Amino acid sequence: MSAHTASWPEAQARLTTPAWVWAKALQWLVLSAVPLGLLALIKPWLFDFWQGVFTAWSRVLTLSVSPHLNAARSAIEWTALEGGNFAPSSATLTWSVSGIAAAWLLSGFFSDRFRPLRTTLRALSLIHLSACVFFIWTPASFPYSISKHLQALMDMGYGFMWVIPPMLALGWGLLQVPLYQKLIVPCLVLAYFALMLPHKWLLQAWLLEHLSILFMPVLFFGFGSLLDLWIFVAVYAWLASRVPAPNPRLQGA
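^ thats the sequence. predicted structure below, dont judge the formating
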C-alpha cells in the first residue's frame, strides 16, 4: 500500500510534465512570432528611418559616409563621399601605444572587486595593441573602410534584433506578468534598439573620422554586437527587477 502511495505522485508528474512542456513551447512560439512578424512587416520603414536619422546627423557632423536605400527598400548600402582613408599618423600610433601601456599598468592597481573591469580593459587594450602593430608593419594592406565598418555594424545590429524576441520569450515570457505585457514589452525593446543603433553608428563614424581607422578593431569587437548584448542584458535585468514578487511575504522579506 505504501509503495502504491509513493508511486502515485511520480505517475502524476509524468502525466502533467509533457503537457506543461508543450504549453510553454507553444507560449514561446507565440511570444516570439508576434514581435518577429512585426519586425519583418516594418523592415522597409525601419530602413527608411535609419537612413533619415544617419543622413540628417551626418550633415550636421560633416561625415564623409552616407547610407543609400535600394529600390526595393530591403537593404542599405554605405558609400563614402570622399576618398580619404583616415589612416593613423605616427603621432596617433605613439599616443595609442602610450595609452595602452598606461591603461594596462593602472588596471593592475584595481582591487579584486573591479576584476571584471580590469579584464575588460586589458582585453580592449590587447585588441587595440594588435591594431597598432598591424598599422606599424603593413598600414597599406588594411582591407576595411569606414563604410564597410558601418555596413557590418548595421548587418549585425539588424540580425541581433531578430534574436531579441526569442530570448525575451524564454526569460520574460516565464515571469508572472500579464499576457499583454509579455507581448508589448518585446516590441518596446525592439523600438529602443531601432532608435539606439543608428546613433551608435553615427558615434563610431564620427570617432573614426576624427581619430583614425586605427580604432576600428576595438570599436568593432568591443562596441559592436558585444555592446548590444550588454545593453540587452541590462534592459532585461531592469525589466525583471520591476516584476513584483509573487508572494507578499517574500516581497516583505
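The beta strands are 65-69, 76-80.
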